[in-house]
Specification:
The chain has 15 helices and 21 strands. The chain is of the alpha+beta class and 559 residues long. Strands 1, 2, 3, 4, 5 and 6 form a six-stranded antiparallel β-sheet that branches. A five-stranded antiparallel β-sheet has the order 7-16-15-12-13, covered by helices on one side. A hairpin with a 2-residue loop joins strand 8 and strand 9 (242-251). The model is unreliable at 7-60 (pLDDT under 50).
Amino acid sequence: MNFTRWSARLPGTQRRAAARDDRGSVPAARAEYAQPDGAAPLPDHPSPPSCETAPAQALAGLALDDLSAREILGRLPAPVALLYGPEHRVAYVNEAYEGTFGPRSCGAPAAESLPELAELSVLPLLDQVLRSGTPRTVKSRRTAEGGSYTVTCTPVAVRDGRGDGGVLVHAADVTDHAEAAERLRASDRRHRETAVTLQRSLLPQELEQPDDLRIAATYQPGGTDAAVGGDWYDVITLGAGRTALVIGDVMGRGVRAAAVMGQLRTAVRAYARLDLPPHEVIQLLDGLAAEIDASQIATCVYAVHDPNEGQLVYASAGHLPILVCDENDTVHRAADPTGPPLGTGGWIHTSGTIALPPGSTAVLYTDGLVERRSEDIDEGVASLARALSGAKGSPQVVCDRLIRSLGVTAEHDDDVAVLVVQHPARKGPSAELFHNAALELLGGVEAAPRARAFATGVLTSWRFPVELRDLGVLAASELVANSLQHGTPPMRLGLRRTDRRLIIEVTDGDDHLPRRRRAEPADEAGRGISIIAAIATSWGSRRTPGGGKAVWCEFALPQ
């Protein structure tokens, strides 16, 4: 192939060519390059080499015009091939090309003679480069042998304008860089998988399902380009039919955020066992978060549902508002009180309420569901409210619909946690399994007999087995006797049955909580709570918001 007819359009040569034209034309010693229309020639007189490498020593004292194109390309350590014509026939390959890919014959089309170009996805570019006259590059492509190359295809023009032109193919070996990048990606994947595994292991493996509520939750980590955050949720049964609902978000990424989240979730479960009001639980969490890591800020909302009251009592530490959709598809947004995020300290948290009547659905969520860079977060909450208004079906169906409606995909750039709580409106046979009965106790010697008679009549009407009825009457009698001895008016006996348990609860005006103790043989009192603990499935006590206390016990119903 005659190299004197070819000129490469190399970027950055036009200014040097213009400067050379001012000095006049300098003929090449062995190859004559000229600039066709729109093409830039190779520079004639490059600056003297500044480093004393072997190639530089070999070229010392020579101008570019003293060398032929074949000599220049042959000295390059990178593989180079020159193709010509619409079929991209091979005009020349240098020694580095043959050393890398093996001997190649000239004159054959590149698709036949240079199969490595197909592996590197270069063949489709050759027509584009030849037609447009614009260089094209493919980066870090791997061959079957395992090497990675970045290949640049540069258009080459014919000097006298006769012919179809060609393409100069230059391949740079980037195997080391590609392997380093792959090791980095693998390390990132392992780090992410560790964080996701830790995150999921710290979340509830199976949600508790209260008698009066139907609950589902969804957690979706951010896409592969996003680090895992600290979103979390929990459902905690408190006894006497009451349920605690929790959702939170640790501001941070990776294993650190997931570890802080796990500590907070464990602490919430411990505080919930104390049966404290929501604002007291949040207050305790606030102090704990500052001790765990003062640099990690977290948001959280803690809510308690009592089936006898038909509402959620909640406290929020910088978290997004709870949304409740009623039977008429009207969405209500929980208002203040809310305080700053956990770990900030110095804030006195308070509790608020939002109605959750039968037939309604509540949604607790993290900011990943509603926050978008292109819009205000209030617009995201409004979009969620519209989606919730039209969402029907089971809690899991509602979860999935909300995720889809808000445009959350597998590539979403933030973690998302959603907790859906339904308070079903029971009708027909299902409603027959849920009953409530209550008796106000005024105190005095007649209170205990009235309580026993009331419990006997109610439990008989609910058609409990004789053994369970007798245990229920005994438990009610002991709880009332304990309240008469240690409590103050007003007193109240409450009985409640669900499809799974019988609940007996006595409230009074004294806030001193009972405790189980060992009674000595000569003691005439102190055995009531021990009897309750022995015959009931579970028991507990709590302080009531208006002052006073409630003592309760539960019996599991035979299935």
